[in-house]
Amino acid sequence: MKALHNAEVNCLLSVLLNSSEVKFSAAPYHDMYHALPLDEVDGPVIRTVKGCVFSECQPTPLKEPLTLAAVSQDVLRNILDLNESVIQNEEFVLCVSGGKRFPGSIPLAHRYGGHQFGNWAGQLGDGRAHLLGEYTNRKGERWELQLKGSGKTPYSRSGDGRAVIRSSVREFLCSEAMHFLGVPTSRALSLVVSEEPVWRDQFYNANVIKERGAVVLRLARSWFRIGSLEILTRTGELDVLQTLLDFIIKEYFKSIAMNDPDKYVVFFSRVVNETAHLIALWMSVGFAHGVCNTDNFSLLSVTIDYGPFGFMESYDPNFVPNTSDDEGRYSIGAQANVGLFNLQKLLVALKPLLTSDQLTQFHELFKAKLGFLGNQEKDSYVIAFLLKLMEDTGADFTMTFRQLSEVTLSQLQTGSFPPSMWALSDLLSHEYFRDWVQLYLKRLMKSDSDAARQHRMQGVNPRYVLRNWMAESAIRKAEKNDFSEVALLQKTLTEPFVEQEEAERAGYSSKPPSWAQQLRVSCSS
Asked: Of the listed 81, 295, 325, 396, which one is catalytic?
């Protein structure tokens, strides 16, 4: 069994860095990667893989012509230490789409398994993703760079290794949007689209259509997930399991002493706590992941693998964004329980720990959304009361909390809302809304000024989230080579808590259009 060797990204993107304006230094794959076993067989031959963590295989370049549809300036500058001038170089598109290898890079596909919709699915793995290498930036942060949609690997099963424009636009925009919402997430550097035909049955109804291929270059501190460990336990590869687990603890959980005899227990407890916090953050911004399988749950508790996600509009704890989820297993209200299921697959009998922490995290986040200071006995009741009113009236989740952060207390008292506060107007129709208002006003600290409360609440209640109708509008234009709305959304979502003139003109904080209710999103991508 050979180990990963010579996998240095000595000058990531150095082929682009002839300009004196650009200063860039790269670190090699960390030394511990050399201890992780590599597949004995090279190449993308689809097969059952044993005895390793990664398989070596090369990306398959997209067919030209290629178009650089979007770039995250924040990732470019603040993670990769690059000047925006590099995107003007024609080689940049090749490097970030798999057409040209980074110097020293050995592209890898990760082997993992997972429980999908509650059932063990066996070997899964990176079926259309290639890990290019690792970069340590000027701040000392280590980031792993991965292409998605870059061709077949040993884990492609019956897939073609490609991704299409609509799913790639959604992943690019949402990963960046979640970052600026303050939710731990993978990031996206770039979106490249091509004219290469890709055939997809979007809603699994035997209606196969031709779409266009695209590649996203995405980044994360680590791409290891619960399924990374599950596959090794399931196949009895306990030596590889211990090697990988020791690596993960040493590199990503540095506060855990490697000589601690309870290090695995401490590790699992940490994952439970941080996963509970992540799910609470999802729920606090109305985000439903859509496919909460164990192969999509990061061991570092960051949001990864954006597929048929959705941001809840009308408040509904049964909101399911994924049309493939007929039973509603991954509804927004079920995410905490699904998280518990996934963690039970990682370690048995941690339910009390998750339940206690999850409730605490949820409670504290919603207290902040309502502007509460301190703790009072009836806080949970006030929160639950409001959510019930929202459920009964179908009030918009995001804009109800945002408009509560913008309304004055006197407006709340009288129920006199301007037309722009359409979400609160929906709530006003409920017979018990005024009762809730009285409880809310009584709960707010008398010493707390209206302006201070509004400022505090506006810092945690976004005005803009990536709603499906907004993404769909951008996708329709992108498929016609008009990337203007992708750019507008990207700009808007970098400051989701700040009112923006262009976003307002585009209607991003207005009541969703009627056609938005007919949109469907599936796992097809």
From this structure: 295
